[in-house]
Automatic annotation (TrEMBL):
InterPro entries: EamA_dom, EmrE-like. Keywords: Membrane, Transmembrane, Transmembrane helix. Residues 11-137, 149-279 form the EamA domain. The chain crosses the membrane at residues 7-28, 34-55, 67-88, 94-114, 121-141, 147-166, 178-196, 208-226, 238-257, 263-280. Pfam families: EamA. The keyword Lipid biosynthesis does not apply. One of its GO terms (cellular component) is membrane. This is DMT family transporter. The lineage of its organism: Bacteria, Pseudomonadati, Pseudomonadota, Gammaproteobacteria, Pseudomonadales.
């Protein structure tokens, strides 16, 4: 029972940390490129220390094929983070998070496109719920509206995360999760360095602090806690708890930034979260950590 409670606590803390990703993205006074680079760099350092303390070799078993896979997935992770942080800067935390939360629908669509599978009833329901949810969340159907533009960037973030999730699920062996995440973050830092390094001098002390928290707590530690939660919970249960990420993000944004969601947005959010929960339950496994 103690192990179960520990796993349950770890899963909820993970969901909160994932939800706080958008909050720190809003607090840091920097471009999406700078935030993405800083997050990846701090996460990479934290994961290197964690691997050293745990005696996990980051170079063991590396070959050209694995490095190529890590590079491609790191490229997708960079695209996911950049679009997500742009969505936050343009449309706010709630809109960006809900746009990103559309990723299960994209995973279903990509599975159908790649493997030519006809959608089952549950998958059709998932697509319908996400579509209706996004329609309700959309502030206006005009591109002149900042909230709508932010939502579109959030949806782009969901698409890139779906591509990342499919790559991780089908192209990595899953035996050394720390190694996978380390090299993905290293790739992100390498790719984003030319776009960010000259702007780092403009960051203030508080921005550096928030970047460190974002990289260490919301990325490296949250990944470790998610893995820990799976030791006492099955993947389906853990995944459904992680699905609460948008709820935590909206609640925190409401409290900190007074981004009070309308009843229409809350209804859309409920449909999207329901779709994520049904997706995790129907597939028999939870979503991968939404590094949001």
């Amino acid at each position: 029972m103690t192990a179960y409670r520990t796993a349950l606590t770890s899963a909820h803390v993970t969901a909160i940390l994932f939800g706080l990703t958008g909050i720190f993205g809003a607090l840091i006074h920097a471009s999406a490129s700078v935030i993405t680079f800083g997050r990846a760099a701090f996460a990479m350092l934290a994961l290197a220390v964690f691997a050293l303390l745990q005696g996990r070799a980051l170079l063991r078993g590396l070959n050209r094929k694995k490095l190529f896979i890590y590079f491609v997935s790191g490229l997708m992770l960079a695209a996911h983070w950049v679009t997500f942080f742009i969505a936050i800067k343009v449309g706010g935390v709630a809109v960006a998070t809900l746009g990103f939360a559309s990723f299960p629908a994209f995973i279903t669509l990509l599975d159908m496109a790649v493997f030519r599978d006809r959608p089952h009833l549950a998958e059709s329901l998932l697509l319908l719920l996400v579509t209706l949810g996004l329609v309700l969340v959309t502030p206006s159907f005009e591109l002149a509206n900042q909230g709508t533009v932010g939502l579109l960037w959030g949806i782009a973030s969901g698409l890139s995360f779906a591509l990342l999730a499919m790559t991780n699920r089908r192209a990595t062996d899953g035996r050394n999760g720390v190694q996978v995440v380390f090299w993905q973050n290293a790739t992100v830092a390498l790719i984003m360095a030319p776009f960010a390094v000259f702007d780092l001098v403009e960051l203030g002390p508080m921005d550096w602090t928030n970047l460190a928290i974002l990289g260490v707590l919301c990325t490296a530690v949250s990944q470790a806690l998610f893995v820990k939660s799976l030791k006492g919970l099955n993947a389906r249960s853990a995944g459904m708890i992680i699905s609460l990420e948008p709820v935590y993000a909206i609640a925190c944004a409401w409290w900190l930034f007074h981004e009070a969601p309308s009843y229409r947005m809350l209804a859309g959010a409920a449909l999207i979260v329901l779709a994520i929960v049904l997706s995790a339950q129907g597939k028999g496994h939870g979503p991968q950590p939404a590094t949001g």
